[in-house]
């Protein structure tokens, strides 16, 4: 099947993956990422470290221009805030395994995607790219990143690549983002910080996150409203939050509250 990763290419892919895992920094990681693209027959690679941030990222911009992505694509990315609008990027928030995007599908089915996506699709099709393979990378603190490979292998070829090399591509996404996250200057809450929350503090915080008022939290917990206030004040202090709403947001990012709402 066209797009299938042959044994020799698979060996090269795994060699690049092993080197990426041990990369000391971005300069060492990027050639391995490009080597993985070559091994699966992808013409272009793209990545984003945080799909919630539509702002200019000089590292991303330099990489994409080096890859040969045209100015118009970069304008759509930065000026039109593509990561917040386009279904392709939104899908990364709901998927956790590699998925295929058929760039010819809108033309075949008569669908009408957002204007930014229509412009981007027209540009990439003119570049000879017909399908994309995307690895969503779900990181700590609710951060969603992605790595994408685009090529002329078509949707069927891309699906064959995912079927044959999906685990390797998934690992690639995580290893590459690990390199980015190791950059100097990153500091956040640690596991030690979080372990200081008591079960009662966690219970009060989770009920607050579910929309209950202080009095209702007290009734559900079997304690007084004053005690609930004391526990929530402790949570705010321990998480370094500005207020209760900020504490709920931080705790949700850290996966401390589980699913909330529908």
TrEMBL record:
Which parts of the sequence belong to the HTH luxR-type domain? 190-255
Q: InterPro entries this protein is in?
A: Sig_transdc_resp-reg_C-effctor, TF_LuxR_autoind-bd_dom, TF_LuxR_autoind-bd_dom_sf, Tscrpt_reg_LuxR_C, WH-like_DNA-bd_sf
Q: Does the keyword Acetylation apply?
A: no
* UniProt key word Protein biosynthesis: no
Could you list this entry's UniProt keywords, alphabetically sorted.
DNA-binding, Transcription, Transcription regulation
What's one Pfam family the UniProt record gives for this protein? GerE
Gene Ontology MF, one: DNA binding
Q: GO BP, one example?
A: regulation of DNA-templated transcription
Q: What is this protein called?
A: HTH luxR-type domain-containing protein
Q: What is the scientific name of the source organism?
A: Chelatococcus reniformis
């Amino acid at each position: 099947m066209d797009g299938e990763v042959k044994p020799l290419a698979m060996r090269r892919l795994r060699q690049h993956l092993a080197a990426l895992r041990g990369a000391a920094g971005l300069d060492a990681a990027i050639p391995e990422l490009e080597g993985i693209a070559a091994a699966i027959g992808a013409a272009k690679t793209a990545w984003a470290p945080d799909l919630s941030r539509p702002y200019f990222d000089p590292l991303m911009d330099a990489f994409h221009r080096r890859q040969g992505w045209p100015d118009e694509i970069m304008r759509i990315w930065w000026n039109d805030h593509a990561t917040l609008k386009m279904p392709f990027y939104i899908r990364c928030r709901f998927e956790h395994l590699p998925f295929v995007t058929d760039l010819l599908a809108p033309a075949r089915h008569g669908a009408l995607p957002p204007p930014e996506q229509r412009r981007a699709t027209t540009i990439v099709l003119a570049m000879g790219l017909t399908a994309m393979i995307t690895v969503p990378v779900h990181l700590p603190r609710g951060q969603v990143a992605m790595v994408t490979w685009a090529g002329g292998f078509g949707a069927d070829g891309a699906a064959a690549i995912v079927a044959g090399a999906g685990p390797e591509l998934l690992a690639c996404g995580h290893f590459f983002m690990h390199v980015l996250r190791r950059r100097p200057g990153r500091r956040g809450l640690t596991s030690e910080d979080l372990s200081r929350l008591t079960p009662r503090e966690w219970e009060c915080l989770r009920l607050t996150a579910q929309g209950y008022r202080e009095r209702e939290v007290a009734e559900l917990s079997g304690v007084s409203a004053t005690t609930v206030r004391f526990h929530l004040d402790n949570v705010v202090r321990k998480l370094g939050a500005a207020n209760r709403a900020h504490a709920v947001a931080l705790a949700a990012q850290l996966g401390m509250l589980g699913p909330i709402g529908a």
